Amino acid sequence: MTHPALPGDPGDPNTSHDALAVAEEPIPNPGMDEHQPRPTDIDPEAERRAERQVATFFALSGVSAVLFVVCYFLFSIGEDTDLLGGYGASNVTLGLFLGLALLFIGVGAIQWSRKLMSDVEISEQRHPAASPPEDREAALTAFSAGVDDSGIARRPLIRNSLIGSLALLGLPVVVLLRDLGPLPGSKLASTVWTTGMRLVNDIAGTPIKPSEIQIGQLINGEPAVFYEENEEGEPIFEGVELLQAKAKAAIIIVRIEPEDITPSSGRENWGIDGILCYSKICTHVGCPISLYEQQTHLMLCPCHQSTFDLADSGKVIFGPAARSLPQLPIMIDDEGYLVAQSDFTEPVGPSYWERG
Amino acid sequence: MRLLTDRLSRKRRSRYAGVVVMLLGLLVTGGAYTVLSPAQASDSASAQSTVDEGRALFLVGCASCHGRNGEGITTQNGTQYGPPLAGVGAAAVDFQVSTGRMPAARPGVQVPVKENIYSEAEISQLAAFVASLGAGPAIPPEEAYNPDAIPADERTEAIVRGGQFFRTNCTACHNFAGTGGALPQGKYAPSLMGVEPVHIYEAMLTGPQQMPVFSDGVVRPEEKRDIIAYLKSVEENPNYGGATLGSLGPVSEGLYAWLVGIGACVGFCVWIASHSTRAKKGAQG
C-alpha cells in the first residue's frame, strides 16, 4: 500500500511544528455575493404591479371582514346545523372569513416586504462581549471606594447585626411552610370499608347477590354507606367528604372461571366462586380503572397503560405501576348479599412518602 | 275445613306420610314447571322444526369452528378455536350474526363487524337451535331496549341517568363520546354510534369477545334502556365544535395540532422563503 506523502503525514519531511499552527484565515473569506436586483427594483412596471398586488390582498382582507359580519347576522348560531358538512353554516362561515381576513393581511405584508422593501444584504462585524479594561478598572475602584466609605470592615457591630437580621428573616418563611400541612397521618391507609358492609352497584346503589353475577361480569361498585342515611334522613357522606371517601373506596367486582384463578397464599377465601373484588384506583397515580378484558382477565389503566392480572391477585404485568391492585376480601351476609370481610388490608391508590 | 285438617293430621301420624308429601310436592313442582315454563316444554311442532332448521344452518355456517353440536373446538395448543355455545343464549346469537361478526371470516384477535348475510328468519332459527343447547339470555323484547318507549315526561331524567351509568361502566373502553377506543394487542372497543339499540342491549347482556357481561341483576333492564337512550341522544346532538377528529381527546387532537397544524405552518414558511425572483436568472452563488 503506497501513496504519495501528503502534507502533514508523519513521513512528510516538510512537516514541522510551525506548519501545523492554524493560519489566521485558513480559507480565504469569500465575501458576499454581488447583489442581484429583483425585477421590481429595475422595472417600474413590475413595481407598480407588485404595489397593486399588495393592495389587493389588503382589500381582500377587508372584504372577508365584512363578509364575517354579514354571515354573523345571516346565519343563526346552532340552527342550520345540517349545512356545510354538518358543522353548521354559522360555524363554518364565521371561521372561514375571520381566518381569511387574517391570512390576507399576512400574505399582503409578506408580498410587500419581499417585492418592494429593500433587500440589500448588510454585513455587521461581531464585537467582543466584555467591557474594555479601563471601564472594568473604574467599576472596581468605585466599588472598593463604596466599601471603604460604608466602613463595613471597620464596624463589626453593624456588620454582624445585619447578618443576624437577614438570617432571622428566613424564619417566617420556614414557619409558614407549616401551613402546607397537616400531614395526612393515617388517612391514606384506610377506607370506609368495614366488616359486613355491602358491596353495591355504583350510581344505582343496588346490593349484589352472587347469583346475579355471571362469568365474565364486571361491576363498578361502591360501599353501601354512600347510599345510606343517618337518623335525621341526611346522607352520611356528602359533598367534598363523599368525593374524598369515594376516591379511595371505589371497587370493581369481576367473576372469573374458578379454575383460571391462582390465589396467592392467605387469599384463598377472599372470593366467592370466582367472584373477586379489587380496588378501582390504579396504584400508579390513582386513576380510576375499569378497562377490563373478560377473556384475558386483564384490567388496564387508561392513563399510563398499567395492566393488572385480576386472576393472579391483581399483579402488575405491564406499565409503570409498582404495586399489585389491592384486593378486598368478600363474603356473603345473612340475606345472601356480597359484603366486605374487612377494610382493604393495604393502603389503596398510589404510593406516598410515609408508606415507604 | 275441620274435616280436612282432621284427615291431614291423622295421616301425618302414618310412617309413610313424609314420603307421600314429598312425592306430592315433586309432582306439583314438576307439573307446574311443565305447564308454566315456555317454548321447549309447550313443545309445539313448529318450535321443534325451527330448531331443526337452525341446526341445518348451524352445520353449514358455524359447525366448522364451534363443533357439530356447539360443543366448541380446542386447538392443539389448548386455545379455543371456537368456544362452546351451550348457555350463551339466543341473545348472543342474534348479536353476533345480525351484526355480521359471525360467522367469522378467519380466526384472529378480534372478529370485526361485516355485512350480515342471514335473513331475520334464519337468525331466529339459528338462535332457537343455540338456545336449545342450554339455557341462556333470550333476545330482549322491543320495549326493553327501545328508548322511544320511555314516556316523554321521563325521557330527560332517563337520559341523565343513562349518562351516569354510561360514564361509570362504559367509557373506560368505548370513550366518553361512545366512539370506541384501542385495547391491547390490536383489539379495540368498537364505536357505539349508529349501533342498533337491540345490539347494544344484547352486548351488555352477553359480553361478546373481550367485553365484560353487565347482567340484568346488576345493571337492571331499565338502566340498560337509559344507557341506550343516552347514546341515542348523543347521536342526535348537533356538532357545534366542528370536526371531532374521532372524539378521541388529546391523542388525536395533539396529533393533528402538531403534525398537520404546525406542519402546515412550517411548510408555508419554507415555501415563502424558497421563492425568490431575481432579475438575472442563475446569477446567484
Amount of beta strand of chain B: under 5%
Whole-angstrom Rg of chain B: 30 Å
Strand content of chain A: 5-15%
Major sheet strand order of chain B: 1-2
Outline of chain B: elongated
Largest interface, with counts of residues having CB < 8 Å to the other chain, equals: A-B, 49 and 38 residues
Largest sheet of chain A: 4 strands, antiparallel
User: How many strand segments of chain B?
Assistant: 4
Query: What is the typical, i.e. mean, pLDDT of chain B?
Result: 83
| Strand element count of chain A | 10
Ordered list of secondary-structure elements with their pairings:
The complex is a heterodimer of chains A (356) and B (285).
Chain A: H1 17-20, H2 39-42, H3 44-74, H4 83-86, H5 89-115, H6 133-150, H7 156-176, E1 199-201, E2 218-223, H8 239-249, E3 251-255, E4 275-279, E5 291-293, E6 298-300, E7 307-309, E8 315-318, E9 330-332, E10 338-340
Antiparallel strand pairs in A: 1-2, 2-3, 3-4, 5-6, 6-7, 7-8, 9-10
Chain B: H1 2-12, H2 17-36, H3 45-61, H4 63-66, E1 73-74, E2 80-82, H5 89-98, H6 120-131, H7 142-145, H8 152-169, H9 171-174, E3 181-182, E4 188-189, H10 197-206, H11 221-236, H12 250-274
Antiparallel strand pairs in B: 1-2, 3-4
Description:
- The complex is a heterodimer of chains A (356) and B (285).
- Chain A has 356 residues and is of the alpha+beta class.
- Helices cover 34% and strands 11% of the residues of chain A.
- Chain A has helices at residues 17-20, 39-42, 44-74, 83-86, 89-115, 133-150, 156-176, 239-249; strands at 199-201, 218-223, 251-255, 275-279, 291-293, 298-300, 307-309, 315-318, 330-332, 338-340.
- In chain A, the strands form 3 sheets. A 4-stranded antiparallel beta sheet of chain A has the order 1-2-3-4. A 4-stranded antiparallel beta sheet of chain A has the order 5-6-7-8, with no helix packed on it. In chain A, strands 9-10 form a two-stranded antiparallel ribbon.
- In chain A, β6 and β7 form a beta hairpin.
- In chain B, the strands form 2 sheets. In chain B, strands 1-2 form a two-stranded antiparallel sheet.
- Chain B is mainly alpha-helical.
- The relative contact order of chain B is 0.08.
- Chain B has helices at 2-12, 17-36, 45-61, 63-66, 89-98, 120-131, 142-145, 152-169, 171-174, 197-206, 221-236, 250-274, and strands at residues 73-74, 80-82, 181-182, 188-189.
- Chain B contains 12 helices and 4 strands, in the order ααααββαααααββααα.
- Helix content of chain B is 53%, strand content 3%.
- The chains are: A alpha+beta (356), B mainly alpha (285).
